[in-house]
Amino acid sequence: MKKYLFVMRHLPHLTSHVQEALDQMLTTAAFDQAVSVLFLDDGVFQLKTGQNPHGMALKNTAAIFTALELYEISDVFVEAESLADRGLLTDDLILPVRSIPRADVNALMRSHDVVVPD
């Protein structure tokens, strides 16, 4: 089994990029691989509560993130500075996450066999 880290950096609902990364993440987990997710930069908005993408052509990806647990994806990380810079707290997010400082991001990446950027 390999350890995969998916790094999510993009805003939700602007392109299909987030949906494609989610599909890849769930497929990887379905094949019994260890999957973790790290949200950086504007990617932290993907987990913000109260999203309303109605009127946009894309799916509500926030709803899909709540299914991560069904795929045994429980290692969900956010970079603390990305949250703070955007005025968010972990309580503002739809999932329980582990907040890590920017200084620990490289070590997290090195602890995985494969890093998949979005």
Topology:
Blueprint: E1 3-8, H1 17-30, E2 34-39, H2 61-65, E3 75-79, H3 80-85, E4 98-100, H4 105-110, E5 114-117
Parallel strand pairs: 1-2, 1-5, 2-3, 3-4
What does this structure look like?
This protein is α/β, with parallel strands linked by helices and 118 residues long. The protein has one domain (3-117): Hypothetical Protein Ychn, Chain: A. It has helices at 17-30, 61-65, 80-85, 105-110, and strands spanning 3-8, 34-39, 75-79, 98-100, 114-117.
As a percent range, the share of helical residues equals 25-40%
- From N to C, what is the helix and strand string? EHEHEHEHE
Structural class: alpha/beta
* Molecular shape: globular
Radius of gyration equals 13 Å
CATH superfamily: DsrEFH-like
Tell me the strand percentage band: 15-25%
Which fold name corresponds to the CATH topology?
A: Hypothetical Protein Ychn, Chain: A
N-C termini distance: 22 Å
Q: Identify the strand order in the major beta sheet.
A: 4-3-2-1-5
Integer average pLDDT? 89
